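During data preparation, we tokenized the protein backbone, and the record follows.
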Amino acid sequence: MFGFFKKEKEQRIVEFKEPTDYVDISKIAAYFKDETGVDFDKQLSILRNRVMIFCQQREISSFTKLFTLIGVDKKIKQELVDCLTTNETFFYREFSQIEKLVNLVKNSVENVEILCAPSATGEEPYSIAIALLEAGVSSTRFKILGIDINDDALQKAKKAVYKQRNTKNLSSSIINKYFDVDNGLYSLRPTIKQLVSFRLANLFDTSFVKIGKFDYILSRNMLIYFDKQTKAKAKNILESMRKNDNQEIFFGHADLF
């Protein structure tokens, strides 16, 4: 008798389970673009699948319910941003630009402040720090700030533990000098980690410009996710943060305008 009632109870739970609705992703796509600038208009099927998995993992039954939640729950909103802005990079990417920056710093008589936006998991700002030290620039002559909208990426940047593929462009001498290698993991030494600070920031938030002004700004491979209008907006914001209006910003080769 007890077993019968238990089965009946389980059946009722299944019967009254909230129906799922993962069809119309348009509101999420528009909201995400407005908040971050990232345009999924040509990748709606990819966005739909990623957000559906995101919802299922958190027992959120529909895109409509998620849309309501991200408007009132900052934690869920940040988790969604982290989920949709995950990317992987590596040390010394497009090194010719880093080399140009190093030469500018070497020829400067002043201490400099450098902004790296976005910083992702830290490879880019740490690359700049290593390249400057390798060029003989004293660590007291520069400050590097890495910003990103992805909090999970920033936490990884602060830990600064990487896989071999992330260091593929580095020579063995640089790896031996700046990393501790153990069981296939490359841990950046504290002497380098302390040269870079990180901050969670959204380029399109009105408070973003309060971060300050910088001698040099690197913003590589971020604009590729924006449409033409959003690219222009992002470019204008970054240009307003230069100390010297004549100093060009280092954009990635794929960041076409």
Remarks:
- The chain has eleven helices and eight strands.
